Amino acid sequence: MFCPKCGSLMTPVNGKYVCPSCGYEISKNKETIKIVSKSADKETIMIKEEVSAEPLDSDAVCPRCHHKGARYVLKQTRSADEPETKFYTCEECGYRWREY
């Protein structure tokens, strides 16, 4: 998410997005609210709620809370001729772990 005031990349901190450049804050809400600002030549639409684009692995079991279902992302952490590493995030408790 980008800051509507200065255009810098905002970072999530304690349930809200904070701009490191100017200090502007936007709280995260469960509902999706669109903020539209129009200028003479362009229209900007920002969505408050961040929806995870990571796929859901319904067979993954969290090692901490034993909940079945976790989002994952694949990253190439070693050389190109070795397999990717799968990083999981539990849907229930938010615990993160990896699988090689």
UniProtKB/TrEMBL annotation:
GO biological process, one term: regulation of DNA-templated transcription
Binding residues for Zn(2+) 2: C62, C65, C90, C93
Binding site for Zn(2+) 1: C3, C6, C19, C22
Domain TFIIS-type, residue spans: 58-98
A Pfam entry, by short name: Zn_ribbon_RPB9
Annotated PROSITE patterns: RNA_POL_M_15KD, ZF_TFIIS_2
Ranges annotated as C4-type zinc finger: 3-22
Gene Ontology terms for molecular function: DNA-directed RNA polymerase activity; nucleic acid binding; zinc ion binding
Entry keywords, A to Z: Metal-binding, Transcription, Transcription regulation, Zinc, Zinc-finger
Signal peptide: none
InterPro entries hit by this protein: DNA-dir_RNA_pol-M_15_CS, Rpa12/Rpb9/Rpc10/TFS, TFS, Zn_ribbon_RPB9, Znf_TFIIS
Family: Belongs to the archaeal rpoM/eukaryotic RPA12/RPB9/RPC11 RNA polymerase family.
Name recorded for this polypeptide: Transcription factor S
Organism: Thermoplasma acidophilum (strain ATCC 25905 / DSM 1728 / JCM 9062 / NBRC 15155 / AMRC-C165)
